[in-house]
């Protein structure tokens, strides 16, 4: 993975850890100080993951949708970005005009050439 993914990796890890801390706090002692400190941290990390994923040009719609899942969405989106299959699909979609690589979306065959009348 490239170093450009480093902020995304950090934000995804903070998102997951902060959610776990919030859930453990809720299930055990339920200290308000922990909730008031970690809650906004989790919210910021969650939004940062979504923004970082949305701004990457090679992300697919599926990867963007995955990033919206709370807690694990960032890590799943990172995994999708690292997948060679997802990378090829994103290159096809971005570089050749459509999801099937044709001139028009949804068409993966060549356009018929007009016949010349002599």
Structural write-up:
The protein is mainly alpha-helical and 118 residues long. Helix content is 64%, strand content 0%. It has 5 helices and no strands. Helix 1 (6-27) runs antiparallel to helix 2 and helix 3 (61-67) packs antiparallel against helix 4. The termini are far apart.
Termini separation: 58 Å
Residues in helix, %: 55-70%
Count up the helices: 5
Strand segment count = 0
Order of helices and strands: HHHHH
Could you describe the largest sheet, including whether it forms a barrel? none
* Helix-strand category: mainly alpha
Report mean pLDDT, rounded to a whole number.
84
Given as residue ranges, the uncertain stretches (5+ residues, pLDDT < 50) are none
Shape: elongated
How big a fraction of the residues is strand? under 5%
Global Rg: 21 Å
Subunit arrangement of the protein: single chain
Structure in a nutshell:
The chain is mainly α and 118 residues long. It has five helices and no strands.
What structural keywords apply?
118 residues, mainly alpha, 0% strand
Question: Layout of helices and strands, plus pairs?
Answer:
Blueprint: H1 6-27, H2 32-55, H3 61-67, H4 73-82, H5 84-95
Helix pairs in contact: 1-2, 1-4, 3-4
């Amino acid at each position: 993975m490239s170093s450009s993914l480093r902020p995304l990796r950090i934000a995804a890890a903070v998102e997951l850890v902060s959610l776990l801390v919030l859930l453990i706090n809720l299930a055990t002692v339920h200290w308000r100080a922990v909730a008031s400190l970690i809650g906004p941290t989790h919210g910021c990390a969650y939004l940062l993951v979504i923004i970082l994923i949305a701004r990457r040009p090679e992300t697919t719609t599926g990867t963007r949708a995955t990033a919206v899942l709370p807690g694990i969405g960032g890590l799943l989106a990172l995994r999708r970005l690292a997948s060679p299959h997802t990378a090829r699909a994103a290159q096809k979609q971005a570089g050749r005009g459509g999801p099937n690589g044709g001139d028009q979306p949804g068409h993966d065959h060549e356009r018929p050439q007009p016949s010349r009348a002599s």
